[in-house]
Design goal:
Radius of gyration: 19 Å
Number of domains: 2
Oligomer: single chain
Number of strands: 5
Strand order of the largest sheet: 3-5-4
Strand content: 5-15%
Shape: elongated
Helix content: 40-55%
Order of helices and strands: HEHHHEHHHHEHEEH
Number of helices: 10
Largest sheet: 3 strands, antiparallel
Structural class: mainly alpha
Length: 222
C-alpha cells in the first residue's frame, strides 16, 4: 500500500492540502501511467479536469482563511483508508498478487458515496460502469455489480463555525436540532476555518446560531 500513500500525499502537497484522501489518490490515477489512467482518459477524465473539479468543490487552499503554517500533505483521512482498504480487498478477492492502480479505480466504483466517486460523476462519468471499462482492457473484475450511487442531495450553503466549537456544535445539531435523517456534513481546512452544511430547506444558519447561543450560556463560558 506504500505506493498509494506516496501518490496521494504527493497530489495533496501539490494542492497545498495538509491532508490526503481518496480523492487525491484518484487524482494520482489520472496522472501516473497505468491501465487506470487509460480508462479515465477514454472516459474524458484528465488530471487537469479532475484537479479543477476538486478545487471547485472547496478542496483548494485558495478558499481557506486564517494564517497557519504551510501543510505538507502528510495527514491521511478516513476516505483514503477506506478507498485503499477496499482496493486491497478487491485485489485479494480477485487473486492478484499485489494491489495495482486498476484495483483502486475499481474501489471507486465500490465506494460510490465517497468524494472520489462524486468527482467522477461531476465530470459525467457513470461510476458503476468503471468495471466494464476496465474489463475491456483485460483487467479481471468482480462478477457482481458494484453498489448503486447514493441519492443526489441538494446541499445548502456552508455555515461557518468556530473551529474550537466544531465538535460540540456538530453533536448538538445532529442530536437536538436537525430532523432525524437530515443529510448533514462538516469539515475544516486545517487552517482554522471550519464549517457545517445540510440539505437545502434547512435554515442551518439559524440552527447554528441557536446552538452557539446555548453554549455561551453554559456556566464557565465567557
Amino acid at each position: 500500500m506504500e505506493w498509494m500513500t506516496v501518490w496521494a500525499s504527493g497530489q495533496a502537497r501539490e494542492l497545498g492540502h495538509h491532508w490526503f484522501g481518496g480523492e487525491h489518490l484518484l487524482l494520482a490515477l489520472s496522472q501516473e501511467p497505468s491501465i487506470a489512467r487509460e480508462v479515465l482518459g477514454d472516459l474524458g477524465v484528465t488530471h487537469a479536469r479532475l484537479r479543477e473539479a476538486l478545487q471547485a468543490m472547496g478542496g483548494s487552499e485558495d478558499t481557506a482563511t486564517g494564517e497557519q503554517p504551510q501543510h505538507s500533505g502528510t495527514l491521511s483521512s478516513v476516505s483514503f483508508h477506506d478507498l485503499s482498504a477496499c482496493a486491497v480487498g478487491l485485489a485479494a478477492g480477485l487473486g492478484a498478487e499485489q494491489v495495482r492502480p486498476e484495483h483502486v479505480l475499481l474501489a471507486v466504483a465500490w465506494r460510490p458515496d465517497r468524494l472520489a466517486a462524486w468527482l467522477l460523476r461531476s465530470l459525467g462519468v457513470e461510476v458503476e460502469r468503471l468495471p466494464a471499462a476496465l474489463a475491456a482492457k483485460g483487467v479481471a473484475v468482480p462478477t457482481v455489480a458494484p453498489p448503486p450511487p447514493p441519492p443526489v442531495v441538494a446541499w445548502g450553503p456552508r455555515v461557518d463555525v468556530p473551529i474550537e466549537q466544531l465538535t460540540e456544535v456538530t453533536h448538538r445539531l445532529v442530536a437536538e436540532r436537525l430532523p432525524p435523517g437530515t443529510p448533514f456534513g462538516f469539515n475544516h481546512d486545517g487552517k482554522g476555518h471550519a464549517w457545517v452544511v445540510a440539505e437545502q430547506g434547512v435554515d442551518l444558519a439559524a440552527e447554528v446560531q441557536a446552538v452557539l447561543a446555548g453554549l455561551s450560556e453554559q456556566p464557565g463560558r465567557d
